[in-house]
Amino acid sequence: MSFSFVISLLSVMYLASLPIIAIITNVYPYLPGDAKYSEQGKATNVTIAETKHEGLMLGVLINQFIIFIIGGLGNFLTLLAIPYVRLKYGMQFSILQLNSVVLILHLSMADLMYALIGFPNFMMVYFFREGLNDDRLCYYAGVLRNLVAYVDFNTIAMIACCVAKHNLCSTCKGASLSHDKHDKIFGGKKVYLVCILIWVVSFLTILPDVMGVTGTFGWSNSPFGCEHMDRVENRLNVGPFLSIINNIVFMVIFYFVIIIHLYTNWKQVYGTDILTYMNKVKSISTTIAILIIAYLVCLLPAVAFSFGNWPAKSENSSYQTKAIFGSIYWWLYGVNFFIYLATSLRIREAYRQFVKDMWKKLFKKSDENLKDSNTESTNFWIGLRYLDQNALHGDASRNIKF
């Protein structure tokens, strides 16, 4: 059994698992059971009193602010620089023409949206001690933040699937720019359909909470502001847990197969051009592998705390643990820029080229304005000199006597 067949089979299994989990998510809450509703999450705009955790809250705020700046500016630069060099320089950035890069851009968009939707809410809670003034606004803020979070999780797993299919392709052996032409899942415009699928599946994951069947989104009366809260006993939304575990399992399997494949072929000798291209492909693969490691490091502690019983919860330690694990988790939305910058030569070069071109355009415009200003100034003084000369000639002519 070849590696390419294994990856193709795993890709189909992963794609099939997404709608299956969505169906389970939305059927499970309606299974027989006694539902008991609580009033948690209905009251918004409740002032948070100062607590003994003020120092910890300040630390969380500083951490959120740093992530907000890095995640905002870094992902914004990514969304500008990579499409710019793809369009302007074309094959000079050949590796960035691959559809896996479209998914990387999709990930950056999700990270940027999370930063813009989530972190201002967190910071507002700390400074004003109140939530959003409107119940519905708080509800939608919580829905959008959670939706974007699951879009982010699913995109990282989809990137792993896409890169694995490219590296172990039976047709081009992962060494051709034409791979996207024969990729039956991510090839051509199909990658954009995959992005739409990610949004649909992510929304279905939180749909039971959106509809109020298993929980709600609203003011938590805590420094975490507008977020998800369980309101219904014996009505569990299993979607988030199943989605996260499913993504982790398939990501690990995809890269485990890739590593085995690369290890078994590392002694193979390629031509100069193919070797150069394979190095670029491996660079992108390394970038995505580190993205996945960061995903696991940032997410697993929060998952263990939210869905499990680790570490053991008490009235005192629960808040502290949530604050610490939450601070680690939020770096998931700011660390990608550093990973691109540190591990991918071509993405790093794309940043450099974009900044260089924008710098030239700005200063070229400034130089042109300066030249225009100098020209106008020169013309002004020449005009004054001309008037002075005429005035002198006029005085001289008046002093001549015949």
Spell out the key features of this protein.
mainly alpha, globular, 3% strand, two-stranded antiparallel ribbon, disordered C terminus, 402 residues
Structural features, described:
The protein is mainly α. It has a two-stranded antiparallel sheet. Strands 2-3 form a two-stranded antiparallel sheet. The chain is globular and about 55 Å long. α4 packs parallel to α7 (239-265) and α7 packs antiparallel against α8 (272-307). It is 72% helix and 3% strand. It contains 11 helices and 4 strands.
The DSSP helix count reads: 11
* Strand composition percent: under 5%
Lateral strand order in the biggest sheet: 1-4
Helicity, as a percent range: over 70%
Give the overall pLDDT as a whole number: 78
Strands, total number: 4
What is the CA-atom radius of gyration, in angstroms? 29 Å
Form type: globular
Structural class: mainly alpha
Task: Give the H and E element order.
Answer: HEHHHHHEEEHHHHH
Major beta-sheet overview: 2 strands, antiparallel
Measured between the Cα atoms of the first and last residue, the distance is 118 Å
Runs with pLDDT <50, length 5+? 39-50, 396-402
Quick structural overview:
It is built from eleven helices and four strands; from the N terminus they run αβαααααβββααααα. With 402 residues, the chain is mostly helical.
Topology:
Blueprint: H1 3-27, E1 36-37, H2 54-88, H3 99-128, H4 135-167, H5 179-182, H6 190-210, E2 215-219, E3 226-230, E4 232-233, H7 239-265, H8 272-307, H9 315-330, H10 336-343, H11 345-399
Antiparallel strand pairs: 1-4, 2-3
Helix pairs in contact: 1-4, 1-6, 1-7, 2-3, 2-9, 2-11, 3-4, 4-6, 4-7, 4-8, 7-8, 8-9, 8-10, 10-11
